[in-house]
Write a structure and sequence with these properties.
690 residues; nucleus; eight-stranded mixed sheet; four-way junction DNA binding; helicase; Rossmann fold; Fanconi anemia group M protein; phosphoenolpyruvate carboxylase, domain 3; alpha/beta; hydrolase activity
């Protein structure tokens, strides 16, 4: 869909048709629900986008109470940052209806008399209320990790599966492990017959996928798969009636999620969208992008502080431990700054960067300066020098990435990175040549090589060389993990620990340090699938799933993960999270912290280096707290999708029917369980009459 066409989605607002909500209320027993997972493929250099939120002031602006409406079920649109329920219907500006009234063909008027809510899990009021909204509106659901987004998705999917007997229901997740996990999770909740369900992967032949699209009704896949099939014309787009999007905060720019929705809307607008995420976005601009790209007409947000969430979430104690750089790293940093000075001074002489201290630059500022140079080069700079300036920018970017590694992850990570530039697949001509000309660089590499290079294959040395750490945070992490296990061992029960680090080199170093304490600490690393350009070979999907299973079942009690483990992974219950590095992004922070405190009180330890990393962590804390406030304060200026498809007839009011869904214990359902559920539903529909 072209840009002009997409802009027409927000040309007019009006009043939405009245909300349908049942007055049935359920119990609030605690249940344990595992929800989806995701993988962020270890992005390195492009991490330079430093988001900074504006401080949204209450003065002079409207409050969330402005224009607040009461739903037909008697619930007011909430005005606190812990509990947000807003949408296009909250701010009517015309008398024209927001909702499309044409019901797609194939709606079953018998099945459509009811919507089914399962009681095989304890009923939680917030899930029940959100499902009621999501059935009737394109909804973005933001819940803390571990509080049942997948449950909500499974219930919504099941009802569209019942309402549209010939329709297609699609669940999109960003990675293959997530896709595989969600099939089982959704089946265990609602028991959609497995013979109607398919996992679609890129390894499946296109001809086979064409056949599956025709034969099955519920699909779990990555956005790339459905996008390929839409472009080939093998996906029956006009039959799609429900589209669920996991980790929906990714739907910015030209992400594959955005492409899928743009392509589907070319064929039909008659499908419900349910977007799921633990966070609505990094800032208000990103939130608006997600709303526009996913055609969202309503948002449901809860935090751990929401009154209806509190009974199901446990306290998470967050400890920030500030670690000084130390004399040794300070000395390495001083020498490294001298190397940076050479390149920065060249760029200053060419007039393409500001005259500021070398240590105050970052990858982001260098990228921005390079972009400014390309858009508007200095008039006194001769054109034949442009190539040299570009080379200096490229070298500066590489060096500032190393500078970040040094401060956040230590001298071992720096050595591995620089050694990769010189000898590995990271290297390229001019950068290598320029570095080797620098006397300070050669001195530094000799120093680091002596400390960290693998020993010669001499029996007298290879087995006796002690393990050397590259950052003071390593010793602190080791102490925190050992104290945790010793404390739990003196009490009762098992415990598990998860450690996050952005880079694979640090994951490897942490794993090796903790392996020294086996069997008290049974540690395993967990990384992404990508191997291209990485010094460490990635895990296959099969290896990832096996590690997760072993960790859940107690084969390991400590998992050291890159960002692949942050978003939604079903890794079981964790009592201690250690974050080895800080992130400015509130998304990354929320995802990491959501790994603990699901069944009992959890602890989160943030290890931050004194100085810049501590500032990064403080900013991420501010961003995390302010994004919900920003949504409330900007509610009237947010553009919600106004053409929300009705998906039920105008005069239709589906009633909620709570029923126990019989689900076989094994993932592969038995015919008996499937037949039993269908018989129950058929009988129950008959009792309601025509």
């Amino acid at each position: 869909m072209n840009k002009g066409k997409q802009a027409t989605l927000f040309q007019s607002w009006g009043q939405k048709k009245k909300d349908v909500q049942t007055d049935n209320k359920g119990s609030s027993d605690v249940i344990d629900l595992c929800e989806g997972l995701d993988e962020d493929d270890d992005q390195l250099l492009a991490e330079a986008m430093e988001r900074s939120l504006h401080d949204y002031s209450d003065d002079g602006g409207h409050t969330a109470n402005d224009g607040r409406q009461t739903d037909n079920d008697g619930h007011e649109g909430t005005s606190d940052v812990c509990n947000i329920s807003i949408g296009a219907e909250s701010f009517p500006v015309s008398t024209q209806g927001l909702t499309q009234t044409n019901v797609p063909p194939g709606f079953d008027r018998v099945a459509g008399k009811l919507w089914i809510y399962p009681t095989n899990y304890s009923v939680r009021e917030y899930q029940y209320n959100i499902v009621g909204k999501a059935l009737l509106k394109n909804t973005m659901v933001t819940l803390p990790t571990g509080l049942g987004k997948t449950f909500i998705a499974a219930v919504v999917m099941y009802n569209f599966y019942q309402w549209y007997p010939q329709g297609k229901v699609v669940f999109m997740a960003p990675t293959k492990p997530l896709v595989a996990q969600q099939i089982e999770a959704c089946y265990n909740i609602m028991g959609v017959p497995q013979e109607d369900t398919a996992e679609m992967t890129g390894t499946m032949a296109p001809t086979e996928r064409r056949k599956v699209w025709l034969e099955k009704r519920v699909f779990f896949l990555t956005p790339q798969v459905i996008m390929n099939d839409l472009s080939r014309g093998t996906c029956p787009a006009v039959d799609v009636r429900c589209l669920v999007i996991d980790e929906a905060h990714k739907a910015t720019g030209n992400h594959a999620y955005c492409q899928v929705v743009r392509e589907l809307i070319k064929y039909t607008s008659e499908f419900r969208i349910l977007a799921l995420s633990a966070t609505p976005g990094g800032d208000i601009k990103a939130v608006q992008q997600v709303l526009a790209n996913l055609l969202i007409s309503h948002i449901e947000i809860r935090t751990e502080e929401s009154p209806d969430i509190k009974p199901y979430s446990h306290e998470r104690k967050v400890d920030k431990i500030v670690v000084p750089l130390g004399d040794e790293l300070t000395s390495v940093k001083k020498k490294y700054v001298q190397i940076l000075d050479v390149t920065i001074n060249k760029l200053k002489r060419h007039g393409v960067i500001y005259n500021r201290d070398t240590t105050s630059f970052s990858k982001f500022l260098i990228l921005k300066a390079r972009e400014d140079f390309r858009q508007n080069p200095p008039p006194n700079l001769q054109r034949n020098n442009y190539g040299m300036v570009e080379g200096d920018f490229a070298l500066a970017l590489s060096l500032y990435h190393g500078f970040e590694l040094l401060q956040l992850h230590g001298s071992r990570s720096l050595f591995n990175y620089l050694d990769g530039i010189l000898h590995g697949d990271k290297g390229y001509g001019r950068t290598k040549t320029e570095l080797l000309r620098n006397h300070d660089f050669n001195e530094l590499m000799d120093l680091l090589r002596e400390k960290f290079a693998p020993p010669d294959c001499r029996p007298s040395q290879s087995s006796k060389k002690p393990l050397v750490t590259g950052h003071p945070k390593m010793e602190k992490l080791e102490q925190v993990v050992l104290d945790h296990f010793n404390t739990f061992n003196s009490g009762d029960g098992e415990t598990r620990v998860m450690i996050f680090s952005q880079y694979r080199d640090s994951v490897s170093e942490i794993t090796n340090i903790l392996k020294q304490h086996h069997p008290l600490v049974k540690v395993m690393s967990f990384i992404g699938q990508s191997s291209a350009g990485k010094s460490t070979k990635g895990f296959t999907q099969k290896e990832q799933l096996k590690v997760m299973k072993d960790f859940r079942e107690g084969g390991y009690n400590t998992l050291v993960s890159t960002c692949v483990g942050e978003e939604g992974l079903d890794i079981g219950d964790v009592d201690l999270i250690v974050c080895f590095d800080a992130h400015k992004s509130p998304i990354r922070l929320v995802q990491r912290m959501g790994r603990t405190g699901r069944k009992r009180e959890g602890r989160i330890v943030m290890l931050v280096t004194e100085g810049k990393e501590e500032q990064i962590y403080n900013q991420s804390q501010y961003s995390k707290k302010s994004i919900h406030k920003a949504i409330l304060n900007s509610a009237k200026t947010l553009h919600f999708y106004q053409n929300n498809p009705a998906m039920v007839p105008d005069d239709w009011t589906p009633k909620c029917h709570k029923m126990f869904i019989t689900v076989s214990k094994k993932f592969k359902p038995s015919k008996a369980a499937t037949t039993s559920n269908q018989n129950k539903i058929t009988s129950m529909l008959a009792s309601h009459g025509k």
